[in-house]
Design brief:
By secondary structure, the protein is α/β, with parallel strands linked by helices. 51% of the residues lie in helices and 13% in strands. Bound molecules: guanosine-5'-diphosphate (GDP) and magnesium ion (MG).
């Protein structure tokens, strides 16, 4: 039976062709244009001199990083580590310190990069996050990616049954991506939706099931109970599922968005993070705050509103894109 078939690695880790990888890098670079021309450009300017490093330089760097949404704690951490790295490498000139900063930025993302996991079929992805973060859009993008790049069969479950039009929205996206969907409409029990979707995924041998969830925060207690309920329904069926709980964070909501997202960490059992709307902010520094505060690997960047505006997150190319000249 299909669910004994083992697949290795995260299911979306499509082996990318050179061309696909390049396209994604371009998308990331475009989506970071505002950040690059804004605060990260200013940071580059700070280091664009062969003068000796001064305390003032570090102070200006701190200010700029905080303005860039890196967050106070992560900023202090980054700056201290950059200073240490400069000392260790005998770096005394500002223009050489820039590379030290970039290296520390890359390692910020790698601290929580998870181990490769093995998984059983169907591979279940639960997508969580506050309303408007971009969950539904991301689900469509992921489904599209899995289908076109990996030839996976994907089923969607319209588990956001709270919000008016949320199920219709996912239905529209499912049609665009050309994947089937289990939906019981607005007001239905989300547990029943997931239950039905699991049945269908097993019966029809789907490779991947992606579950959309509600995200209203003002009823936080109920929301977390709701997520726990879905989690348990999935567990009862497949003990080591959901294989991935993807927390979606909107880059344009800044530090506040990170704070809100933290509320999901414990009850939703978050394993991975996606940052959406990178194209809509000049404060791409939010990614560093996410990496440090959420303590989960960033997997995806949303780079626009279209079906293929999705890029795998790569620490090195992200940092390079912030500073590209
Ligand atoms: N510019 C931009 N907009 C996005 C991106 N991802 C989502 N959106 C928009 O954000 C809004 C909310 O997205 P939605 O998927 O409905 O969020 P949900 O409430 O979490 O399901 C929609 O208008 C989307 O088009 C992105 O990567 N870039
Ligand atoms: Mg939605």
């Amino acid at each position: 039976m299909s669910f004994f078939k083992r697949i290795f690695g995260r299911v979306q880790d499509a082996p990318r062709t050179e061309e696909e990888a390049q396209q994604e890098e371009q998308q990331v670079e475009q989506s970071l244009e505002k950040s690059r021309k804004g605060i990260f450009g200013q940071i580059s300017q700070l280091f664009a001199t062969s003068d000796p490093i001064t305390d003032e330089l570090w102070e200006e760097l701190e200010e700029a990083l905080i303005l860039g949404d890196v967050g106070v704690e992560t900023t202090l951490y980054l700056v201290n580590r950059t200073k240490d790295r400069c000392n260790r490498n005998g770096v005394k000139k500002a223009n050489e310190a820039r590379d030290m900063l970039k290296a520390e930025m890359v390692s910020t993302f790698q601290e929580y990069a998870g181990q490769q996991q093995s998984a059983l079929q169907p591979y279940i992805i639960l997508v969580v996050g506050v309303n408007g973060a971009g969950k539904t859009t991301l689900i469509a993008k992921l489904a599209h990616r899995l289908k076109t790049r990996l030839n996976k069969t994907v089923l969607l479950a319209a588990g956001d049954t709270f919000r008016a039009a949320a199920t219709e929205q996912l239905e529209t996206w499912a049609e665009r991506a050309g994947v089937p969907i289990v939906s019981l409409g607005q007001g239905a029990d989300s547990g029943a939706v997931v239950y039905k979707a699991l049945d269908m995924a097993f019966e029809q041998d789907f490779d991947v099931l992606i579950v959309d969830t509600a995200g209203r925060l003002h009823a936080k207690y109920n929301l977390m109970k709701e997520l726990e309920k879905l989690y348990n329904i999935i567990r009862r069926r497949i003990p080591d599922a959901p294989h991935e709980v993807l927390l979606v964070i909107d880059a344009t909501t800044g530090q506040n968005g990170v704070l809100q997202a933290k509320a999901f960490l414990s009850s939703a059992g978050v394993t991975d993070v996606a940052i959406t709307k990178m194209d809509g902010t000049a404060k791409g520094g939010i990614a560093f705050a996410v990496a440090q505060d959420i303590e989960r690997p960033i997997r995806y960047l949303g780079t626009g509103e279209k079906l293929d505006n999705l890029a795998l997150f790569d620490a090195q190319s992200f940092v390079d894109a912030l500073f590209a000249e």
